[in-house]
Amino acid sequence: MIEPTDSKCRICYKAEHIQHIVARCPTLASSEYSNRHSKVATYIHCTICKHVGLQGTDKFYEHIPERFINVNGTTIMWDVPVITD
Fold first, then answer.
1. Which residues contact 20 (CB under 8 A, 6 or more apart)?
2. What's the pLDDT tens digit per position in 42-67?
3. 10, 26, 33, 60: which has the highest count of C-beta atoms within 10 A?
4. 70 pLDDT band (50/70/90 cuts)?
């Protein structure tokens, strides 16, 4: 006999569906979404640094971004609020 599955999130116990897990679980939002965002941003920063010719690590997960990098008149920023008009 097949056991019925529980449709509640195993972390916060609210109704579970794909949108909840990917973007809405309040328990995950406090830490895991932020960590995932930082990992993706680190990969992008590492890729941009390689594109402009900066030497760095071959493994993006070992890349430690600098706050500001100036290369030939271009500034690469890390974790800096950007204000536009």
1. 9, 14
2. 999 999 888 888 877 778 888 889 99
3. 60
4. very high
> Which residues of 1-85 form beta strands (DSSP E)?
68-71, 74-77
Cα angle: 40, vertex 62, 39; to 5 degrees: 15
Judge contact between 54 and 44, C-beta under 8 A: no
Distance CA(20)–CA(39), nearest Å, equals: 21
Residues in Cβ contact with 49 at an 8 Å cutoff, skipping those fewer than 6 apart: 56, 63, 69, 76
The residue length of the chain stands at 85
* Both structure tokens of 84: 């536009």
Q: What is the mean pLDDT of residues 72-85?
A: 86
